[in-house]
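Forwarding these from the shared drive since the link keeps breaking.
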Amino acid sequence: MTFVSTLESHGCGALRRERIEILQINVGKVCNQACHHCHVDAGPKRTESMDRRTADRIIALLQNTPEVETVDITGGAPELNPNFRTLVEESRRLEKRVIDRCNLTVLLEPEQEDLLDFLRKQQVAIIASLPCYTAENVDKQRGRGVFERSIRSLRLLNEAGYGKPGSGMQLDLVFNPGGASLPPPQQALEREYKHHLRENFGVEFGRLLTITNMPISRFSDQLVRLGKQEQYRQLLANSFNPETIEHLMCRSLISISWDGKLYDCDFNQMLGMPAMRRGSIWDIDSYSPLARDEIHVGNHCFGCTAGAGSSCGGQLS
């Protein structure tokens, strides 16, 4: 059973992009953490990083594509890229909503003392990874002491207004399962997160987004070591939910890599599966022509369509 044959059996046909609302920019693999579930294989020893010429070209094309509403910046730790703030400032100048995919602990890194103030002034929405509300589970996935530093950062964000009701400063958290399983129902888990973080640490946030771990890169290697790779892939395939198809993020998103190549999503980017019939940002004059393109799919796409579905915005159905 393949993802393509599964689509055909449900009468779905080839996936196509319906519109371009979100421009997701992966500025590189440099990160201050090296998480076990990371599909990017990011870490402190990685050197791949977007240069200024590429960042400027991305903004020039954005200016020519008024239908894009949101610029979603990810990494690695995107804030460590020297062009991160330029991308934010120029996107905001064009009146785009900007999302920062933040690992929280980057706010405490040397030379990032003014980062929180910058994000607040630019009204950047923050989607932050916190794979559990307990120290044991977070440190197991992300490294010793990461939970404590994450809580410190969340408190700083709350003090700046992020996550506070009525503030207009978006702070959402992301949950990833600790092992080879699907995420639990998003709303119920969100209630647990809010209760534990409020009662134990005085932390507030907006939404919890549950995201299925993709069997790619570092998480795939972990599954192989545990002898669970085939079992997990079968779980994803057996859990296919056709109701997720119309909500898939790739149908309204374009992904750009640190070197300017074009992809249908960040997962395809990490697998080296470029957008079909497209090359890089140097081959187009705007992002508009990518609307209605066929989407490059593979068996990893079962990860987004399993159970209640998964995307960068959390549960799909």
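-- next protein --
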Amino acid sequence: MGLPPGSRLPAVAQTAQVVRDPVGFFVRRRDDYGPVFRASFMGVPKIAYVSTPDLAQTVLRSDRTVGEAGTARRDFLEPLVGSQSVLCLEGEAWMRERRLLGPSFHGTRIQSWAETIADVVGREVSTWPRGVTFPLRPRMQRITLEVIWRIVFGLDSDDTDPAHRRLWELLPQLLTVAASPVLAFVPTKVALWLDSSDLAGRIPGNRIARFGRIKQETDALLLHLIARRRADPDPERTDVLSSLAAADTTDEQVRDELITLLEAGHETTSTALAWLFERLLRTPDVLAETRRAVESGDDRYLDAVVKESLRIRPVLLDAPRFLTGPLALDGYEVPSGWYVAPVIPLVHADPETYADPGEFRPQRFLTDQPPTQAWIPFGGSRRMCLGIQLAILEMRVVLREVLRSIELDVTDPAPERLRLRGITIVPEHQTRVVASAR
């Protein structure tokens, strides 16, 4: 068995293509080379991709044998989330962190947060302008940040403590700088130089040096918050920070997991919500049915809307594994030391699983046997995202409360184009809408 086929274009050209048209790049590669192919990007190790549900499951389940998800993420996530993050660990260390976080994401605990999320949405929607066009994604970012602020950090957005206010200001800045496509494709050695060199620090627009400064201040504030929470434990508190501080953990572990939960629950969820409304507002029949579901309290249909939105507009491009041994894929062999990943948008558009995959049809997820093998917005196998239930609950509550409160419309019927922002796929114009009173 030989290597998968792939383009001979230089890495810089392929990087430019994927930044400009992230999903189209992979569609063209699949059409040219078949369901297994390789690609070359700046600052990224050798990587092969798969595009079908069966092959995707083979890749995801390799985390039980030769595929390491933590190692695959480490180079581009560890500078943000830290070396103790559950996202970047392997083996017993990963299992320890997973068990540490697990109780905070138990189904009963998550359901108890629904009222808090609804309150956050109500307060935010009341500030939205009426009768003018505005981008929805930044508003969703404010919602998801405050949800994390309350249920993860155990703080209130009205808190007047200077350290808390400064942390509230810094957290979205940290994620904004970290999401730059430049950081995703800069080789590690270059990134370290740009972060630490005095000369590089004077380069105009050096986003990596700015990231380093913001991260340093954020870490200091988080460690201060952790110390205060440890010094004044309260068994009645249910926030994630209090649970982690009460456990047998180091301050660095707690800090890294707080940033991990911020990264996983803020940027990705707010983008998923922006896509949810972008698709819903351009599909009038689904919007009408969704309004009826809101009025009747049909959460099952609302969940189906959320899942279909995550299918047709997944936030992440892939779910990589680093290979510690060779992996056979459809007659090819990907060598040890390579990365391998399913292309999530292509798996979600599999025509053998989804009839008319380009259509927004929530009823796909109302059947007795939903197509879970071809639905991987949260990854899969042992390394599936721990916050999947929270993300779906949050999206359902936001959907319900927004449709209860206001009317939303779009001025341009054309769908928003897909753009790459860091490792996420965002709407080109951030879902521009017009709000009016119901």
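The mean pLDDT is 90. DSSP finds 19 helices and twelve strands in the chain.

- D.
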